[in-house]
Amino acid sequence: VSDLDDHEIAGADAPPAPAPAIGEVAPSRRPTPGEAARTLVQHAERATLSTLAQEPAGYPFGSVAPYGLLDGGSPVLCISRLAEHTRNLDGDGRASLFVTEAFPMGDPMDNGRLTLLGTARRIEGNTAVAREAFLARHPEGRSYVDFGDFAFWQLDVEAGRWVGGFGRMAWCTPEEYREAEADPTPPVAPGAVTHLNADHAEAMLDAARAFTGHADAVSATAVRLDRYGIDLEIATPRGLAFGRAPFDPRVEDADGLRMAAVRLARAARGDA
Amino acid sequence: VSDLDDHEIAGADAPPAPAPAIGEVAPSRRPTPGEAARTLVQHAERATLSTLAQEPAGYPFGSVAPYGLLDGGSPVLCISRLAEHTRNLDGDGRASLFVTEAFPMGDPMDNGRLTLLGTARRIEGNTAVAREAFLARHPEGRSYVDFGDFAFWQLDVEAGRWVGGFGRMAWCTPEEYREAEADPTPPVAPGAVTHLNADHAEAMLDAARAFTGHADAVSATAVRLDRYGIDLEIATPRGLAFGRAPFDPRVEDADGLRMAAVRLARAARGDA
What we know:
Chain A has 272 residues and is of the alpha+beta class. Chain A has helices at 33-43, 84-91, 128-137, 174-179, 189-199, 201-211, 257-269; strands at residues 46-52, 60-69, 75-80, 94-100, 113-122, 150-165, 168-172, 219-226, 229-236, 239-246.
């Protein structure tokens, strides 16, 4: 706990709420579906591309596709006309990209995933921006992007279906997707969750008591976190509960997570 | 590279072939596309399910799906009517399951993957066989398979599109898929490849000289293996070459791989 002590804190401004019912989650900011979508796309390395098969005609056809990202989050593919999915897109541009959590924690079915639906179109003329966007994420692509059978394609996003895990899901609009910012914390989140539980159990308990309304908490375990806060599983004499402790301000980059956790712990203890 | 699809067996007692051209692969039995398909499906844990969206109508929609396998390799899903893919299948049963190599080696794009196309139908009446098949691969499913919103669905396979890596791909028919047997070696293959290269470089060189026609090989590296043999990258004074050394007989289970490698090495040295 000691290395959580020696830092400034933003104050814990709200008075403790009355104890919520077991299972109720106290209100706390979470990533929007648009943010969750941009975050999953940002950190995944490759997607499953779904296209409409030419043969057997009209069947949805899954294949693997590395992708780059343009400003605004539009995915860029670099695909060979010798590949089945390219023949499919030549016939019908409707497509989706499906990505899963790049840094999963626990049950894979309780981790985030996203289906980005839209229309894929081959980029004609100047492909410099697409090429750069693709190679920025896939430098190994230098070995094939300039082959004559390869071309860049862009997915114009028309809808996003996000599933956050058991029971958490939402659609997002193309505007919500385009305007949202990716969360920087996923690469460091699993390690941070492990560390918080292993070495800062007391701080997690303080946070549960201070922020979730469960003042009678007897222990608390971090189950996941994002730039806005930590999801806690809380043991109380009344049974198991869930709650959330906020980072204030939000985490701006992966390196900022440690300081945000220190602030949260100090605020939970009331030494603002 | 068309002879990559050659399935003839090169017996250890066949007369040595004349040195093939650089880049040419000597004939040696390989898994058929049907076997490769069954192998990928057998060892993957979950697939990307592609369905036809209800909204936006007709778009291919990717999602995640754990699956079980019936005799004959038909995948069984257990999906909730609250999930988007189930609504999609209720509207149009055409679907595909996409799986990737469970035990990849090297570049992900140079590893196997498979698209199984078919029609999904809800299993009505007695679901005991489907339930058992699903839980055999996903015991964690006990926590939800009997929920009222979940049901078992079966994919009736109509075609399989296999991609083995750069430049290796084929379709397989439903009959080829159904009748083929999964290769037991993938879980132990990456470790075996590493071990053969680290500790048995001389045996790999003997194998390259004896079985690939490159009698002037100066070194050889195992790049992948399956139950029928080892793919070798071979350095020769004429340049880099590729070849294959056969297991004879084929490997029957994961535990048999070591003995098969010993036999191969002895045959290569000529002390069979």
